């Protein structure tokens, strides 16, 4: 097994180091009944012997490609010795995002459990996006909960001597010269085709992490809603849509309500599109597509949203080349330039991030072998200074998955300058879902 990071994973890791922060993928399970701790520990073991069982080891060369080494995770599940009220389940999930995660120094992922005063518990799995994208994490959970392990064949940390590493990584750089040349061509084309957007977003570059000093860090407010799967299906069909277009319509309406529109009143939705294949070991096997949606009529018809989804998917091959063509340059990008590129990568205006995992396999909801009553799926950055969130134009991200007869919809949002509170976001999400004729239970 080649342990060299794929170019997109290299870019993710170098971006994390340049910015001093990065996205985390989180699953949460809320149990209203006692958890089988022994089964949970077996799940934890299996996670460490699958797609999550690795961390990054750096190349000794400044522009060398980094490599994966085996790492089976923390020694045990982090089980709290105290009991907390059931009503604090979401607050605890937020707190777990603030526990350090590092794909190089470790832990690159962690599993934790908080007993609740009702006799149940809340469990969470948090992982660095450098180690796994949303679908990779879902696949790892599905395999671990099904009792499967996967030997990736990566070397132990420090297996190469410095001389071996220098020699091998220098040879890899020489072999990659054609990739660099093709990436330069793609980068020039990308810049030429998006000159206006690059100019308008260039001013949103992030400062060096050290310059933020003691700036107040925040966790972006987030809520999760549960909708009966039958009601979800009835509404999508009555509005002439699909599950994905209903999800996109909700994203567009939330974007409008929270002021994330362009000067024409349109909302820009950014969707990851998985390219994961059988046996794929890339951490981030994905590309992306952008939808431009008019939110004015999405609560009465999803036909235009469905058509825009179809159009974007048909144009995906061209968009993929434009998006991923330059990624081979990732090892060559200095940290200062990476910080400048962040604002450009966000795109012009105020995009809305969307990740719909669709129908999940039943084991994904069974970390202890039994069905959790509630599941939480989200991607979020933690410990980000409020000043930086404001400078980058705020954020709005939606994630969704369907399992055990429910649609789980997580929404995280930050409005530049505020107000920003979980109660306000809860009210906004409830209002938008009611406009779609949906009756949610909000955790």
How do the strands and helices of this protein lay out in sequence?
Blueprint: H1 7-19, E1 24-31, H2 37-48, E2 54-57, E3 67-70, E4 78-79, H3 89-96, E5 109-115, E6 121-128, H4 134-145, H5 162-175, H6 177-193, H7 195-201, E7 217-218, E8 222-228, H8 229-238, H9 243-257, E9 267-274, E10 286-293, H10 303-314, H11 316-324, H12 335-346, E11 352-359, E12 374-380, E13 384-385, H13 386-391, E14 395-403, E15 406-414, H14 422-435, E16 441-442
Parallel strand pairs: 4-5, 9-11, 11-14
Antiparallel strand pairs: 1-6, 1-12, 2-3, 5-6, 7-13, 8-15, 8-16, 9-10, 14-15
Helix pairs in contact: 1-12, 2-4, 6-11, 7-12, 9-10, 9-14
Protein name: Diacylglycerol O-acyltransferase
CATH architecture classification name of the domain at 219-322 and 345-442: 2-Layer Sandwich
CATH topology of the domain at 219-322 and 345-442: Chloramphenicol Acetyltransferase
Global structural class: alpha+beta
Please give the count of helices.
14
Nearest-integer average pLDDT: 90
- CATH superfamily caption of the domain at 219-322 and 345-442: Nonribosomal peptide synthetase, condensation domain
CA radius of gyration is 22 Å
Order of helices and strands: HEHEEEHEEHHHHEEHHEEHHHEEEHEEHE
Strand content: 15-25%
Q: Going across the major beta sheet, what is the strand order?
A: 10-9-11-14-15-8-16
InterPro entries: CAT-like_dom_sf
Protein name: Diacylglycerol O-acyltransferase
